Amino acid sequence: xxxxxxxxxxxxxxxxxxxxxxxxxxxxxxxxxxxxxxxxxxxxxxxxxxxxxxxxxxxxxxxxxxxxxxxxxxxxxxxxxxxxxxxxxxxxxxxxxxx
Length: 99
Fold this sequence. Notes:
Strand content: 25-35%
Strand order of the largest sheet: 1-2-3
Order of helices and strands: HHEEE
Shape: elongated
Distance between the termini: 48 Å
Radius of gyration: 15 Å
Number of helices: 2
């Protein structure tokens, strides 16, 4: 049971990290254009990130946009026999800090 639980959490963590990377890229893609276009709200890029996470079976729990820098936190519940825990991952998209 222990090995199965560890494998389930590790697999979920890998999946959630990939989803966080995709969501961060989606948010950065929209936010890079939203600065120059008349967007209805600043949250429009984060809404796109939420949609990417939702379609991948996760939840976008946090989203920050600072100039060209985008940071997101994505979570996904993992069921481990008798209890459920949340696995989360962080991702960043934007220009290199040394740029």
